[in-house]
Amino acid sequence: MEHAIQISGLKKSYGKTEVLKGLSFHVEKGEIFGILGVNGAGKTTVLECIEGFRKYEHGKITINGKAGIQLQSASLPAYIKPMEAIRLFTKWKNTAIDTSLLAALGINELKSKKYMELSTGQKRRLHLAIALTGNPDILFLDEPTAGLDIEGRISLHNQIRQLKEQGTTIILASHDMTEVETLCDRIAILNSGNIAFIGTTDELASKIGKKYQIKVLTESGEDNYTADNIGDTMLAILENYRSKSINVLDIKVNRGTLEQHFVDIAKGDFL
Ligand SMILES: Nc1ncnc2c1ncn2[C@@H]1O[C@H](COP(=O)(O)OP(=O)(O)OP(=O)(O)O)[C@@H](O)[C@H]1O
């Protein structure tokens, strides 16, 4: 089956720094696909290369469908009113105003305000409405809920899920594992310009599910370990301290959360 987005061997450098080192992946039609990584991992760069806003040195990107792109904050003129912005983009995309979409996103309530007077959440809703004018097949979202309160987050998540139900393919960048876990069908985790993991969050959880984190407090300080096999590892750790005549004062064992494991993978400490 034809994919919504197909990327092979994508390389991008800023000056001498290679930020993307040959990424290959695809986004399936109708899925919500998350690109994860810590700050500076290259998430925005990947999105911008796919969107066509960034030149790249190597690789091939194929998009099958009409794209809708959520603007970055502060990207509209300060004095423009929400409905003026909607009319501008509707005209530019040569399409009609979708009044039910505007009602669903609460844009009508913002009529009297200027762009600079909107809150972060209101701006995000307006940016989403603009991205959705012309009914795109593929929606690009960069940190869609950054700066939103819990209510705004839940509301935007629900809107994103509804769009998926209507058949829209969604690709989003985020550094929030919890957000991605609740929303995305599949994720790619970027690390040092490469994909460190790609698959479903369930696959990620089962891959790392047996990982334990062990914190040992001794008279010389605190040591941290991770282990798949808790029994053998504990014996080896304790034997090591005993052979060095170091007194163990306390031991704590945790099953790591997906979030902690994401940080390990994203920073390169995984396995
Ligand atoms: N226009 C640019 N010129 C030079 N370097 C850039 C430019 N844009 C991004 N970079 C660098 O490329 C790297 C990746 O940036 P990018 O914005 O793609 O990361 P990100 O994962 O989206 O980060 P964040 O989570 O902070 O938004 C960073 O080291 C950044 O400093």
From TrEMBL:
Originating species: Murimonas intestini
PROSITE patterns to which the protein is assigned, alphabetical: ABC_TRANSPORTER_2
Family label: Belongs to the ABC transporter superfamily.
UniProt key word Nucleotide-binding: yes
UniProt protein name: ABC-2 type transport system ATP-binding protein
GO molecular function: ATP binding; ATP hydrolysis activity
UniProt keyword terms in alphabetical order: ATP-binding, Nucleotide-binding, Transport
Residues covered by the ABC transporter domain: 5-217
